[in-house]
Write a structure and sequence with these properties.
alpha+beta; Fructose-1,6-Bisphosphatase, Chain A, domain 1; 2 domains; eight-stranded mixed beta sheet; 8 helices; globular; binds 2,5-anhydro-1,6-di-O-phosphono-D-glucitol; binds manganese (II) ion
Length: 335
């Protein structure tokens, strides 16, 4: 491709050359990117735009909502509801699904999102992001309801995130590898910075919230203990640790230079499968990671093969460099 390729051009060429993104999906992704641009503007203003701090409300997960959680959710809905490419949306910040109002044409896609990932970083000026996943309405279905959203992650037709960090970067897959685009604020457009992103199979870097160590299950404890033992331990090398507390930033680092990320089930809330949400966080990130040559499991099973039972389902997440993910998964399976 030529030296400066915009997201628009990339998507047109994906549609033209490979023919595997229909024009409706291309339009949908353009609109998501536009919404991310305006969320990025709000994020950049920070205290100058009155977007910091908490709102008065709680979301369905029992988390106090930040003002930006709500703003980002509204931006995504307003940008996407009128275009005619969607039948409905679902979000971490909404209890039920959002059906496209019947004053607008109904499309055949479903959009799911974590409008603002890493909420605890908002007020301290650290990276946050938006995560999204696109599914197709089941064939012959009339009228959208929650069950239409309950599809395994391998059914996704597009997935990605936009990270609001030192740069605003959109990372996308439509099933043909992973591409990264950085927002050029002067041009107002996302410009391709890397195609066919590949994660190294081995790594010396891991990401987990170590403060939960006493709550972990045995296989995770064993794995991390071995990493901490360094070059004198069974792994024979020293490992480094990073934890941004925004999945979007931890996954971005892994896509850039490898690593393993874990938010495993733990004993704090045994009835929940984990902290992270399958539909808005684990599925889109797992597909990106697999598309870049990595792996993603819940310890026992490939995340993309999990059949969701409900919209806000939680899941244990282990993803990143293939050989490390396979090792932890092996420990869970009794290896
Ligand atoms: P969100 O801000 O969308 O609720 O998600 C936060 C998630 C995830 O991004 C991050 O990896 C994790 O929570 C951090 O959790 P801890 O604060 O328990 O480390
Ligand atoms: Mn949240
Ligand atoms: Mn999140
Ligand atoms: Mn969120």
């Amino acid at each position: 491709m030529p030296s400066k390729v915009s997201l628009t051009r990339y998507l047109v060429e994906q549609q033209r050359i490979d023919g595997h993104i229909p024009s409706q999906l291309r339009l949908l992704l353009e609109v998501v990117a536009r919404a991310c641009k305006s969320i990025s503007q709000a994020v950049n203003k920070g205290a100058l735009g009155s977007v910091m701090g908490s709102a008065e409300s709680e979301n369905v997960q029992g988390e106090i909502q930040k003002k930006l959680d709500i703003i980002a959710n509204e931006v995504l809905i307003e940008a996407n509801e009128w275009g005619g490419h969607l039948a409905g949306m679902a979000s971490e910040e909404m209890e039920g699904i959002y059906v496209v109002p019947n004053r607008y044409p109904q499309g055949e896609y479903l959009l799911l999102f974590d409008p603002l990932d890493g909420s605890s970083n908002i007020d301290i000026n650290v990276s946050i992001g938006t995560i999204f996943s696109v599914l197709k309405m089941p064939e012959g279905d009339r009228g959208v309801d929650e069950s239409d959203f309950l599809q395994a992650g391998r059914q996704q037709v597009a997935a990605g995130y936009c990270i609001y960090g030192p740069q605003t970067t959109l990372v996308l897959t439509v099933g043909d590898g992973v591409a990264m685009f950085t927002l050029d604020r002067e041009q107002g457009s996302f410009v391709l910075i890397e195609e066919n992103v590949q994660i190294p199979e081995d790594t010396k870097e891991f990401a987990i919230n170590m403060s939960n160590m006493r709550h972990w299950d045995e296989p995770v404890k064993r794995y991390v203990d071995e990493l901490l033992a360094g070059k004198d331990g069974p792994r024979g090398k020293d490992f480094n640790m990073r934890w941004v507390a925004a999945m979007v930033a931890d996954v971005h680092r892994i896509l850039c230079r490898g690593g393993i990320f874990m938010y495993p089930w733990d004993k704090r809330e045994p009835e929940k499968a984990g902290k992270l949400r399958l539909m808005y966080e684990a599925n889109p990130m797992s597909w990106l990671i697999e598309q870049a040559g990595g792996a993603a499991t819940n310890g026992k099973q490939r995340i993309l093969d999990i059949q969701p039972g409900k919209l806000h389902e939680r899941v244990s997440v282990i993803l990143g460099s293939k050989n490390e993910v396979e090792r932890v998964t092996g420990y869970h399976l009794g290896a």
